Amino acid sequence: MIYSVSIFVKFKEVAMAHISHRFGGDWTNEKLERVGKYLSHYTTALKNTPFHLIYIDAFAGTGYRTADSLDDKQTFLFPDQAGEDAEAFHSGSARIALGTKPCFLEYYFIEQAADKCRELERLKQEYPDRQEYIHIVQMDANIFIKDICRVFHKNKSWRAVLFLDPFGMNVVWDTIEAIAGTEAMDMWYLFPLGVGVNRLLKRDGNIPSGWQKRLDMIFGDTGWRDIFYRNVSTPSLFDEPTNVIRKTGGFGEITQYLVQRLKSIFPGVAENPLPLFNTRNNPLYLLCFACGNRRGAPIALRIAEHILKE
Questions:
Q1: 211: which residues sit within 8 A by CB, 6+ positions away?
Q2: In terms of pTM, does the model score above 0.90?
Q3: Nearest residue to 138 via CA among 122, 167, 117, 166
């Protein structure tokens, strides 16, 4: 199955609709503010309910949007993933969550790097009235999320918003499934569209086995091979035409495929994930939204899709 060209056209239309934001000011903050707007709507809607509201920030970084917080560039699949365009997305959400009114009851900030955890501890000083409710967890986010999802199954009054903001392609599909399985978490997911997935999809289809496994892990299946590639007949002057494998899936097809994969496990998924661009106007990420609670999905989707298209 190959998605139609209209998907790519739709992707470009969405992209052009948001380019003006980037040249008008600090576009990285503008994107983070979208998540902040949802958090405010979320806590306001549930403030008079018996639910125990939790905010979870996976791959939280330092909690501050600084230009010099990245110190482990060698861990990335592509070195320029660690450039300033990418780094700008990967901090600041923790402080936005702590500034949300009404407040969440608990906050979990997950970060594997010890130095970044020490920086996150500074947040407790800024919010002394909530020190005991701010949990800084030094752990691989995939492991922690699966652990806390099991706790959610035992606490039916818990509800959460989770911001999944990985560097590169560190999130595995099992983690996404665990989030959906709680039926109690809304997820904002910064998907590595241009900095990861599209760059692994080589034009000639000759993808190293390690990269194929990485793609399998991020999508949770092998179906991407049939979506993003097809056999193409190549004419020849002297011989019979030969069939070669060519990449036919671009940013639009990747976007649509991800949305469909999320729909297979979540009761509600925003149809308009937002592409985020670097200074050369190339797509870096998709800001995606999925709702875990079936009953709350309709209103959550209306709010999230409106915020994404602003």
A1: 200
A2: no
A3: 117
Choose among 168, 152, 169: nearest CA to 160: 152
Give yes or no for a contact between 176 and 265, defined as CB atoms under 8 angstroms apart: yes
Instruction: Write the CB contacts of 238 (distance below 8 Å, at least 6 apart in sequence).
Output: none
Q: What are phi and psi of 55, to 5 degrees?
A: -110, 130
Whose CA is closest to 220, among 197, 188, 203, 204? Answer: 197
Q: Residue 164 — φ and ψ, nearest 5°?
A: -100, 105
Stronger pLDDT, 18 or 262, i.e. the higher one: 262
* Angstrom distance (rounded) from CA 217 to CA 170: 9
More confident residue, 235 or 131: 131
Pair 22, 284: CB distance under 8 Å: no
Q: Which residue has the higher pLDDT, 67 or 56?
A: 56
Q: Decide: 91 and 32 in contact? Cβ < 8 Å.
A: no
